[in-house]
TrEMBL record:
<dbReference type="InterPro" id="IPR036514">
    <property type="entry name" value="SGNH_hydro_sf"/>
</dbReference>
<dbReference type="Pfam" id="PF13472">
    <property type="entry name" value="Lipase_GDSL_2"/>
</dbReference>
<keyword id="KW-0732">Signal</keyword>
<dbReference type="InterPro" id="IPR013830">
    <property type="entry name" value="SGNH_hydro"/>
</dbReference>
<dbReference type="GO" id="GO:0006629">
    <property type="term" value="P:lipid metabolic process"/>
</dbReference>
<protein>
    <submittedName>
        <fullName>SGNH hydrolase-type esterase domain-containing protein</fullName>
    </submittedName>
</protein>
<feature type="domain" description="SGNH hydrolase-type esterase">
    <location>
        <begin position="64"/>
        <end position="269"/>
    </location>
</feature>
<dbReference type="GO" id="GO:0016788">
    <property type="term" value="F:hydrolase activity, acting on ester bonds"/>
</dbReference>
<keyword id="KW-0378">Hydrolase</keyword>
<feature type="signal peptide">
    <location>
        <begin position="1"/>
        <end position="19"/>
    </location>
</feature>
<feature type="region of interest" description="Disordered">
    <location>
        <begin position="31"/>
        <end position="53"/>
    </location>
</feature>
<dbReference type="InterPro" id="IPR037460">
    <property type="entry name" value="SEST-like"/>
</dbReference>
<dbReference type="Pfam" id="PF18647">
    <property type="entry name" value="Fungal_lectin_2"/>
</dbReference>
Length: 673
């Protein structure tokens, strides 16, 4: 499971147990008879049976191993029941569900599947997953897996940093230590899983290793007070700041990088006769759909009508009865189904000292964590126990406090998330099968997708002249690939911030990128700006609403930011002007809309005031300019105040000479100057 919500589930006590092998027929029922952990003596080769990588009929025997992301906790209906659980049937104990991605994949593989081993177990670390693999009968055509997130001992960290934030210093110190030791703990353990799989795979078989997904949207601070945070064990989630969410997202990026490196090293190992592929569904969650928690466009409810593509479970905020309209904080503190457990949990966690426990753990406190891991691997011949707080010397599994799945499923993929994982896993399977067959993977010609924001009902627009200057600066000078980006990446830049013409330009890349093409960027940005809004008789001033151009792996976006502007779009510039005589000087107030919308009047109105010295006859003083948060009752978007020499109103302002020079119009200028 993804780091952030993996450990959050551990913090609320998701059951974590050793997995036993559970065989299934294609129909999903338990096969007759038990399995042994001994491999068959003779491996049969899958062979090159056809020339269609998307034909899955070669898959006769396959297994899904891993943690709660594989088990699918909460996704659909639970498999089995506590009465029927045995050492050979651990469906209930491991929180396996019927809409987990392995079940979806199994249905897609088709009727050729003879044996399906669904053994992923919620809470399993790599030590438990190693045992899952060792217990499998060999001669496997396919293995799919999600593994590694539970090895980081981060349950307590999430508890203190997110669920019960109790101080930045303690949290940040533990984060730093966890980051420093991540590769030491994870990579060697993952490589042990690959070695264990080698004993079980057919020659020309395939292993698909699924990555994790970044859980948090980091665009807005509007998250901590959303209703769902009050439905957890620890309400009032003030720890979900943008910076802290980004830290946990970075953990996901790091673990995915480690998984990718293990996959690459495994693929390059000529001793392994099977193929391996890395399935990365992360970009879909933040780029393909609005799939993350804390998305600014969501209401914060769960389920959320404004965020139907959310990929993860959150605490349910739907309450019926007399309390349905109550303040969410009071509603969940006083009436929520976890009220008693929440109060007990808060009292309990306040007695703990996270930092002491974690720093006393073996790997985090070791002078040389890598050497400690190697020592344990040499001694055990299996993944090293991460020695999380509370573990005994040989524990490979965390302890459970036995909370039910309706609590434990939070911070895990929901049904949509599991369909996403299954889709990416199947596509990776097709690509990897093509490598087995020594052929190019099939591909679809991706059609460009062009969306104009005006057609979606947007009322946000900006001046064409500025946008057509800004996109060139953005593409030619500003865009740069973020340091360390290995998968998808995004770069954004805002122009004219705090003005009506404020606009954000964005380039997003959905896959490992080739060199960024600045000429293509210029072409696509020009198209977004000028092909969406042009020759419209209802828009004679040619304001631009922006849009989005998806071209292959690249998405080019132009998004005006000001939500409250003069509406309908003005067909001509407008404004008002007043000037008063004060003896030795005159003072003026000018208002406007549809012009001077990007630079606080500096290069528009003020520069033209100074250029018309022949009209004014002297300097402009005490210049003040402000934009309104929203148009006033007359539709005005800004106001300028300034002083001039006396007796210039008629020849400079009442005839609109200065206003027209600045690109605007006020219909004259009242007053007594």
């Amino acid at each position: 499971m993804r780091i952030a919500h993996l450990v959050a589930v551990q913090a609320v006590g998701l059951a974590a147990v050793e997995a036993y092998v559970m065989p299934y027929s294609h129909a999903g029922n338990a096969s007759a008879g038990g399995l042994t952990s001994q491999n068959r003596q003779k491996k049969r080769s899958v062979g090159k049976r056809d020339d269609d990588p998307s034909d899955f009929s070669w898959v006769k025997r396959w297994a899904a191993v891993g943690d709660s992301y594989t088990a699918g906790i909460g996704s659909g209906k639970p498999l089995g029941n506590p009465i029927m659980d045995t050492p050979e049937n651990t469906n209930w104990y491991c929180s396996r569900y019927d809409t987990a991605w392995p079940v979806i994949v199994n249905d897609a593989l088709g009727s050729s599947v003879e044996d399906f081993y669904f053994v992923g177990c919620s809470g399993d670390r790599t030590g438990g997953i190693y045992n899952q693999i060792k217990a499998l009968e060999g001669d496997l055509d396919l293995v799919m897996m999600t593994a590694g997130g539970n090895d980081l001992c981060l349950a307590k960290l999430i508890e203190k940093c997110v669920l019960v934030p109790s101080g930045d210093s303690s949290c940040d110190n533990v984060i730093k230590t966890a980051q420093a030791n991540m590769e030491s703990i994870l990579k060697d353990n993952m490589k042990q899983l690959m070695a264990a799989l080698d004993e079980k795979m057919n020659d020309d078989g395939i292993v698909i290793y699924n990555g994790y997904a970044q859980f948090f949207n980091t665009e807005s601070e509007a998250c901590a007070n959303q209703a769902w945070t009050y439905a957890t064990l620890w309400p009032g989630n003030s720890g979900l700041t943008i910076s802290r969410r980004q830290i946990f997202n970075d953990f996901v990026v790091q673990i995915n990088n480690i998984i990718r490196s293990v996959v690459e090293e495994t693929a390059a190992n000529t001793a392994y006769k099977w193929k391996i592929g890395y399935s990365n569904w992360d970009p879909w969650v933040y780029d393909g759909v609005q799939g993350q928690m804390c998305d600014p466009d969501g209401t914060g409810d769960y389920p959320d009508k404004d965020q139907p593509d959310l990929q993860f479970f959150k605490p349910d905020t739907q309450v019926s009865g007399d309390d349905a309209d109550a303040d969410p904080k009071r509603r969940w503190e006083e009436y929520g189904p976890l009220a008693e457990k929440r109060r007990a949990a808060i009292a309990d966690v306040e007695r703990r000292n996270l930092e002491t426990e974690l720093y006393n753990s073996l790997l985090f406190n070791s002078v040389n964590p890598r050497a400690e891991v190697k020592h344990r691997l040499d001694r055990r011949g299996m993944p090293s126990p991460p020695k999380c707080p509370g573990d005994t010397d040989d524990d490979i599994q965390p302890k459970s406090i036995g909370l039910p799945d309706w609590v434990g499923k939070n911070f895990h993929p929901n049904e949509l998330g599991h369909y996403t994982i299954a889709s990416f896993a199947l596509q990776t399977l097709v690509d990897t099968r093509a490598a087995v067959l020594d052929m190019e993977p099939p591909s679809c010609e991706i059609a460009d997708k062009f969306t104009c924001w005006q057609t979606t009902g947007s009322k946000q627009y900006a001046a064409a002249k500025q946008l057509n200057e800004d996109y060139k600066d953005f593409c030619d000078k500003q865009v740069k690939r973020p340091t360390g980006a290995t998968d998808g990446w995004k770069f954004s830049h805002k122009y004219h911030e705090g003005t009506p013409d404020e606009t954000e330009f964005t380039v997003k890349v959905a896959a490992p990128s080739t060199n960024f093409d600045r000429k293509e960027c210029n072409d696509k940005m020009w198209a977004v700006i000028n092909n969406c809004d042009g020759n419209d008789p209802q828009n004679p001033l040619n304001f631009k609403f922006g849009g989005e151009f998806v071209h292959g792996d690249y998405t080019y976006t132009v998004s005006p930011q000001k939500k409250k502007r003069h509406w309908p779009v003005p067909k001509e510039t407008g404004g008002a002007c007043k000037g008063w005589w004060h003896g030795w000087w005159s003072s003026y107030v000018m208002w406007g809309y549809g012009w001077a919308g990007h630079d606080h009047g500096q290069q528009t109105l003020l520069s033209d005031l100074k250029k018309t010295t022949g009209c004014i006859g002297g300097g402009v003083t005490l210049w003040r300019f402000k934009y309104f948060d929203e148009p006033d009752e007359n539709g005005m978007e800004w106001q300028a105040d300034f002083n001039t020499p006396i007796w210039v109103r008629q020849r400079c302002f009442n005839n609109n000479k200065v206003q027209r020079a600045a690109g605007g119009f006020t219909g004259g200028c009242g007053g007594n100057d």
